[in-house]
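Structure first, sequence second, as always.
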C-alpha cells in the first residue's frame, strides 16, 4: 500500500511517506534553561488564544477572569487552539501532564506536523527514564527535518509507527519499521531502502534498521561512496551532531536464525 507524500499543502503520488519539507526549519524554538520543563511559560497563552477562547471559557466556566488558564488547558478543544503556531501548541502539549481534550489528542496523532512531535516524545518516554527536556525535543525535530542521503539522485521521506507503538507497520506507507521512525530512501521515485530508528532521552539515537527493499537488482548502490550501512550511519551523524548514536541491528543469515549486533558510535 502506498500513500501520497504531503508537500507544501499538495499531494504528490510518486513516493510514499511524508516529505521532510513538511517540517519547517525553526518551527520549534528553544527556551531558556529555567523554562525547559514548562516551555508554555515562554509566551502569553491567554493573549495568543484571543477572543474565541474568552467566549468559550465564559460559556464553559462562567466568569473567565477567575479562571486559572494553565489549570484548564486540557479541557480546551483544538478549534480554540488553531490561533497558536506549531511551536506554541507543542509547548502547551509538552507542559500538560494529563491527556488533553480528545480533538487535541486526535490532532497530535493524525496531523503530520503535530504527529512528529507526538512520536518524538513517545519514543523518548519509551527509551528513557522520566520526561525529556523541551530543548532535547527541539534538537531531535531539527535533526529529523534536515536529514538527507547525500546524493541528488535520492529522495528521503519520513514515516513512523502507529499510535504509541515502538515498531510495526508504518502509519502512511505500511512499511514495516524496526523502530519508532523510518526514513524511506527513494531512488528515481522507487523506495529502495528503509532506515528505522528510535529517539532516546539524553540526546541519544538508536539506529535499528538499515534494510534494502530488494535483495537483488540494487545497482544504485554503486552511487554511494561507501558501504550502504556505513553511509547510512554517516548521514545520521551529520543530521544529529549533538546525539550519541547507538546501532542495534538484526542480521539475517539463514532464516529463521538472527544474530543481534550492538555497537556504539560517539558523536561530538
Amino acid at each position: 500500500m502506498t500513500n501520497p507524500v504531503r508537500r507544501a499543502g499538495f499531494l504528490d503520488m510518486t513516493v510514499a511517506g511524508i516529505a521532510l519539507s513538511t517540517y519547517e526549519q525553526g518551527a520549534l524554538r528553544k527556551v531558556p534553561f529555567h523554562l525547559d520543563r514548562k516551555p508554555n511559560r515562554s509566551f502569553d497563552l491567554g493573549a495568543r488564544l484571543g477572543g474565541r477562547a474568552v467566549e468559550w471559557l465564559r460559556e464553559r466556566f462562567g466568569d473567565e477572569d477567575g479562571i486559572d488558564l494553565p489549570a484548564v488547558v486540557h479541557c480546551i478543544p483544538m478549534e480554540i487552539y488553531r490561533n497558536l503556531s506549531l511551536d506554541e501548541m507543542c509547548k502547551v502539549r509538552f507542559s500538560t501532564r494529563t491527556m488533553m481534550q480528545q480533538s487535541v489528542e486526535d490532532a497530535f496523532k493524525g496531523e503530520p506536523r503535530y504527529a512528529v512531535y507526538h512520536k518524538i516524545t513517545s519514543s523518548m518516554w519509551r527509551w528513557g527514564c522520566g520526561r525529556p527536556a523541551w530543548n532535547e525535543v527541539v534538537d531531535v525535530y531539527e535533526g529529523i527535518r534536515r536529514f538527507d542521503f547525500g546524493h541528488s539522485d535520492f529522495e528521503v521521506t519520513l514515516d513512523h509507527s502507529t499510535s504509541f507503538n515502538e515498531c510495526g507497520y508504518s502509519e502512511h506507507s505500511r512499511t514495516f519499521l524496526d523502530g519508532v521512525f523510518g526514513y524511506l530512501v527513494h531512488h528515481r521515485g522507487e523506495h529502495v531502502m528503509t532506515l528505522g530508528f528510535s529517539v532516546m532521552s539524553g540526546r541519544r539515537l538508536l539506529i535499528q534498521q538499515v534494510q534494502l527493499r530488494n535483495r537483488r537488482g540494487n545497482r544504485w548502490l554503486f552511487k554511494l561512496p561507501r558501504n550502504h550501512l556505513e553511509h547510512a550511519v554517516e548521514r545520521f551523524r551529520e543530521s544529529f551532531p549533538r546525539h550519541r548514536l547507538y546501532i542495534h541491528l538484526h542480521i539475517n543469515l539463514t532464516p529463521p536464525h538472527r544474530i543481534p549486533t550492538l555497537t556504539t558510535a560517539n558523536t561530538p
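Margin note: Residues 1-24+102-268 form one domain.
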